[in-house]
Amino acid sequence: MANVQVTTRQAYRRTDDYTPGKPRVELVTEDLPLPLAATSVLIKVHAVSLNYRDANIANGGNPWPVTPHGLPCNDAAGEVVAVGEGVRTFKLGDRVAPIIDTENLTGRESKRSWLAADEDGVLADYLVFSEEKLTKLPVHLDWVEACLIPCAGVTAWTSLLGIGIGKSVLIQGTGGVAMIALKLARTAGLKVILSSSSDAKLERIRQQFSNPPLLTVNYATSSQWHEEVLKLTNGAGVDLVVEIGGTQTLVKSMKCTRRGGTISQVGYLSKQNTDDLAEFLPLLIDRRINLRGIDAGSRLEQEDLCAALSATQMRFDDVIDKVYDFCQADEAIEDIWQGRQVGKLVIRIG
């Protein structure tokens, strides 16, 4: 094993205090798990990106149990600074990221373990992971861009899988998954319709992705927004919906999905009410919809995304809204909780 120069790390742990105005995280100093196990890798973290689930967990809203006072965030990019004696996949200096479900290596595992929920997340300046839970990162991306890959990137990638060139997709929202899905869909030759509740956000993105012109729908000003989507597809409906709303939007998403089409259920950002699902089963059967749950992806899928990004030299600099310093972690969590961003929020470390 290479000589390890550091023995402690700076990390943010959740306070689990949901009082309005109180910090959601606090900075702590803690020992690293040294010496490294034979197959473990020590990573110096350079950037961590935020997802809505980070703020949701920090504010007590996660629908699944979480480890008390755990480390938030599951998107990180860093470099290998030490390896255990049995490590064969990585060497010093490699650019790496952990997968966010550390049990999901191939997609066939029966167990799960999510970073920042079932186990500690990645909001720290150093991390230790078993080599099997890491993938290499594309070398053309800087740290701030590369840290978008494990959660938002892989989620967008798996949401779009299996949809052929020339097909149509409705992407909901303007957050990180939506913006990366937009870029991937355009590169894959898909016709994109983007929805949001903000005309200002839609106009900003239309200008950013102007060729070919981006089709948009405001679901706040049009209560029957699914009808608008149908009009944009000549009544047929889209081939795919990247669905982030949940119960409040799912039925309308089904109504504007073509018969035999697919819905990738990514999130549950709207207020959840099962009464909104009264038409669910008739629509599912009548429209022959393939409804699939997207839980990010496996290590293999993360490797596939990284290979695709390297092949296309795709950049993510245009989907990053704001970059924070490490000391601004609590501010960043509050900003994403309030939905102030268009695209991704990133915390730079070191």
UniProtKB/TrEMBL annotation:
SUPFAM superfamilies: GroES-like, NAD(P)-binding Rossmann-fold domains. Residues 21-347 form the Enoyl reductase (ER) domain. GO terms for molecular function: oxidoreductase activity. Residues 1-21 are annotated as: Disordered. InterPro entries: ADH-like_C, ADH-like_N, ER, GroES-like_sf, NAD(P)-bd_dom_sf, Zinc_ADH-like. Residues 1-10 have a biased composition (Polar residues). It comes from the Eukaryota. PANTHER family: PTHR45033, ZINC-TYPE ALCOHOL DEHYDROGENASE-LIKE PROTEIN C1773.06C. This is Enoyl reductase (ER) domain-containing protein.
